[in-house]
Amino acid sequence: MSEETNPFESLQEQIEDASAYVDIGDDVIERLKRPERVLETTLTVELDDGGLKTFAGYRSQFNGDRGPYKGGIRYHPGVNRAEVKALSGWMVYKCALVDIPFGGGKGGIEVDPAAHSASEMERLTRAFAAELRPLIGVDRDIPAPDVNTGQQEMNWIKDTYETLERTTEPGVITGKAPGSGGSEGRVRATGRSVMFSTRETLEWLGRELEGATVAVQGYGNAGSVAAQELDKQGATVVAASDSSGAIYNPSGFDTVAAKQYKTETGSLSGFEGATEEISNEDLLTLDVDVLIPAALENAIDESLATDVRADLIVEAANGPLTPGADEVLTDTDTYVVPDILANAGGVTVSYFEWVQNRGRFYWPESRVNNELETVITDAFDGLVAAFDEQDLPSLRMAAYVVSLRRVAGAFRQGGNFPWLRADCLSTVCRQPLLTRVFRWCRLRERSPLIGYTENTRALRRRHAEEDVNRETAITGEQNRWHRLLQRESPDETRLTALCIAWSVKIIVGKLVTVSFSTGRLGLVASGLLNPIRDVRHQWSLLRLHESSKFLTVSLYDDGRDQFDSVFVDFRPCLRSIVGFLDRIVFDPFFRDACRL
Predict the structure, then answer these.
(1) Contacting residues for 317 by C-beta, under 8 A, at least 6 apart
(2) Distance (Å, rounded) from C-alpha 343 to C-alpha 341?
(3) Residue 388: is its pLDDT beyond 50?
C-alpha cells in the first residue's frame, strides 16, 4: 500500500488522462480538476470526563454543475483536506456516470470513533452539523454516510439541522433510518452495486459469475454486503480481511456467519469458517477470478500491482488503486471496474431517498432494488459502449470520458457565471441566486428582477460623501432610476413598480447593494401609499439603520421636486432580514461575488 500517494493528485491525473479522449478545452478541464470550495473547521467537544478536545473537520464542495453537492461524511484518523477534495471529485464523476442530477461533495472528521463513547460521538456529530448548517440544504448540499458513519450519525445531523433551522426537512441528508425518513435498501445499496457491476462485467467478458472465486479486502458494510450478494449469485468467497488481518478458505466460507462473527468480536481473526489466516497483502495477490478492494484508498500501488493475479478487480472502495497501479494492470490486461461505477449504489439509492423525501412518498425495498439495478446496468452499458467505440485503454478511462462529457455539457449549457469584481454587480441582480435570496427575505413574491444597480465602487464613494452632501447624492440616485424606468415601462398603469436600492451595513462594516422590483409595494413598504399610476413618482431609497429597528424611506416626487421621509417599523419582517444577512455572510458564492 502506498502511504505517500496524494489521492487528490490521483484524481487530477485520472481527469487529465481522460481529457485526451474528449473534445473539451484545457481551460474547462482545469476548472473540473479543482473544488469550488472547501470548509476546514476546528470542533471543540466536551468529553465525558469534563475535559475538552479539538477535532479537525472538513467539507469539500467540488462541482455543482449538474445539481446539489452530494457526498458522504466519514470518521477516521486519516481524514485530511486532500482526501476529502479527492473524494468529492470522485463523487462528481460518479453521479455523472450513473446520470443522477447531483454534483459532488465529501466531508469528514479526523477522529477514531473506537476511542470515544457514544455520547462523545453524538456531541461531535452535532457540533459538526452546526458548522455545516450554512452550507448544506435540500437543494444545496446533501451529506450521507461513509466510513465509520451510518444511520445514527445521519439522524443526529438531521435533528440538529432541523432544530437550528426550525423546520422539518428530511431531505437535507440521506442514509437515515427508515423511521426518520430513510429509504429501504439504502444500507445494502453499495454492496449490491458491486455485485451488479461484477455480474455485468463477467457477462461482457463471456464468463459466468456462478462458481467464480472472490477475495474481499475490507469486510465493512460495502465489502460484507458485496460478499453476501455475490454468494447468493453462486460465487465462492474464499478470502476476506479487515484491519486485524485476513481469513482464507479455498473452498469458500459462510459470508453471513463471518459478518456476524466480526460484529460480535470486532474482527475476523479467529473465525472458525476459515482454514488459515493470511496477511492483507497476501489476500490482494491471491489467484482468484475477482478481487474486491473495499477498504480505503491507495490500497494497491505500482509495486503491489505487479503481483496481483486476479482476472478482474472491482473497486468497492474509493480510489483503492494508485495511477501507477492502474498503468501496470492495464499493461497486463487486467480489467478494473472503476469505483465511480462499482460503488455508485450508495449515492444512487441516496438519490432515491432524496426523491422520496421531497415527495413524502416512500417506496418498498423491491422497487428500490429494481430501480438500482436498472441504473447500474444502464451505466455499465454506456461505459462499455464508449470503451468499444473509442478503443479506450481501460474501463476507468471510459468511465471518465462519459462523465467528463456530461459534466462539461452541463457547464456549457448553464454558461459561466461571471464572478464579479467589486465594481461590477449589475449582472448579479439578474441571476437565479439573487432571486432565491429575495424569496428567503420575503420582500418579493411574484415580480421578476430588473437588476439596475449602480456600480458598487461608486456607491461606496457616494456613501462616503453623504455626510457632506446627502441630499445631492440621493437626488442623483433618484434621477438615474427615474430615467431607467421611463425607458423600461410600456404600460405605466400596470407596472406600478417600486424600485428599491437597499444598502445594508453588515457586521463586517462593508456595503452590499441589491435591487429588485415588485408589482406592488413589497412587505417592507406595505401601507405607506397606494400603487402610483404615474411612473415618474415611483422612487424610494431604503436605508437600514444599524442603531435602530426602523427603515428610513425617502420618497422623491419630481412633480413637487422634493423628498418626503417616513420611518417604518420593520420588526414584523426582522426574521426575514436576519435570514438574508445570514445568507450573505455565510454563502461563499454570494460573498465572493460581492467581495465582502
Answers:
(1) 218, 222, 293, 294, 295, 296, 297, 299, 339, 343
(2) 6
(3) yes
> Residue 448, SS3?
coil
Return the SS3 of 537. helix
| Mean pLDDT confidence for 110-120 | 96
pLDDT over 90, % of the chain: 62
> Using an 8 Å Cβ cutoff, are 352 and 358 in contact?
no
How many other β-carbons are positioned within 10 Å of the β-carbon of residue 93? 27
Length reported for the chain: 596
List CB contacts of 347: < 8 A, sequence separation 6 or more: 70, 71, 91, 94, 95, 98, 100, 102, 144
Q: Which three-class secondary structure state does DSSP give residue 328?
A: helix
At 561-576, the pLDDT tens digits run: 444 433 333 344 444 4
**Please, which pLDDT band fits residue 594 given cuts at 50, 70 and 90?**
very low
Q: Is the pLDDT of residue 586 over 60?
A: no
Question: Distance between alpha carbon 250 and the CA centroid of its chain, in Å?
Answer: 42
Active-site entry in 33, 106, 158, 259: 106
Active site residue 106: yes
Say if residues 61 and 35 touch (Cβ distance below 8 Å). Answer: yes
Q: Can you read off the three cell numbers belonging to residue 40? A: 476546514
